[in-house]
Amino acid sequence: MLFGGIEAGGTKFVCVLAEEPNRIIAKSEFPTTTPQQTFERAFRFFRDQAVGIGDLAAIGIAAFGPVDLNRDSPTYGYITSTPKPGWAKVDFVGQFQHEFNLRVGFDTDVNGAALAELNWGAAQGLNTFTYLTIGTGIGGGGFVGGALMHGLIHPEMGHIRLPHDWEADPFPGNCPFHGDCLEGMAAGPAIEKRWGAPAAQLEVDHPAWALEALYLSYGLVNLICTLSPQRLILGGGVMKQTQLFPLIWRKVPELLAGYVQDAAILQRIDQYIVPPGLGPEAGVLGAVALAIQAYQSQ
Ligand code: ADP
Ligand code: ZN
User: Fold this and answer.
1) Which domain does 208 fall in, by range?
2) For the chain, which terminus, N or C, has the lower number of CB atoms within 10 Å?
3) How many Å apart are CA 10 and CA 33, to the nearest integer?
């Protein structure tokens, strides 16, 4: 059986064709331009690739947001209020359903990645865990009590507020809404703006990383205290700086200050805060997992 997956990011789209369950057999990447142009390229990929291999069973879309996930809403399946030009109020699911006339799974990119990590990665066997991506922005999702986190809208973990020592770090933050929220202080573009060089170019022992680990640890401590996840999975471009993990493993228990008492944190923190088991494929396999979930739910 054949499933289509679209990892729809603000800068690029990744489309894949996967054989059940998660073997990627074709892939195409292209920049996110206008919705019409970008959707056309995705349509073409699935039309060209699926011919001769067999029909698609379902498509999954793991999208940048915010998105409308409320099935009772007239704008279910839309990108809602993004500042990305041309993309606000775009009917993402509807256009793909119309084009291919099949089931379309839809969720945030991070919930997709969380589902893939549950099925095939670092969250197998868990029922409450969090997936956080630290890249161009910071986004979070995951499972609580065995269900993907859906609520009023979807979680916006990147926009939680943190203590900010202005003397130690005078950078005001660059979130257009909040300034110094987690995303405004710790996403890739914030690192670049604070230090005047792209994050990828900073040396592994640059002071940027201790500060980054501090902000991420504040964020994680908030998530630990509110969601009580059994594991936290950290992905995204910034986490390619793997030296961040040991810094975070030291900082999180320090900030929890002995209050949350569990062996997972006190003794096995390197298995508690982890990179995605699926590595850089977590995002796109998330889209495939959403397709499979949509297919199975019919
Ligand atoms: P997106 O968030 O757009 O889906 P990524 O998760 O790949 O994509 O994040 C891209 C961001 O991650 C870039 O803006 C950059 O700031 C940061 N980044 C990419 N590679 C590295 C690296 N090797 N080290 C640190 N930061 C990186
Ligand atoms: Zn914010």
Assistant:
1) 122-275
2) C
3) 9
Q: Is the CB of 199 under 6 A from ligand 1?
A: yes
For the four alpha carbons of 113, 117, 119 and 125, in that order, the dihedral sign comes to negative
User: Which ligand is closest in space to the CA of residue 176?
Assistant: 2
Q: Domain count of the chain? A: 2
Distance 183 CA to ligand 1 centre (A): 13
Does residue 253 lie in a domain region?
Answer: yes
CB atoms within 10 A of CB 255: 15
pTM metric for this prediction: 0.96
pLDDT tens for 169-228 read 999 999 999 999 999 999 999 999 999 999 999 999 999 999 999 999 999 999 999 999
**CATH number of the CATH domain containing 250:** 3.30.420.40
State if residue 232 touches ligand 1 by the CB under 6 angstroms criterion. Answer: no
The residue among 58, 75, 108 that closes a domain is: 108
Q: Whose CA is nearest to atom 18 of ligand 1?
A: 237
Rg (CA), the chain: 19
Ligand approaching nearest to the C-alpha of 187: 1
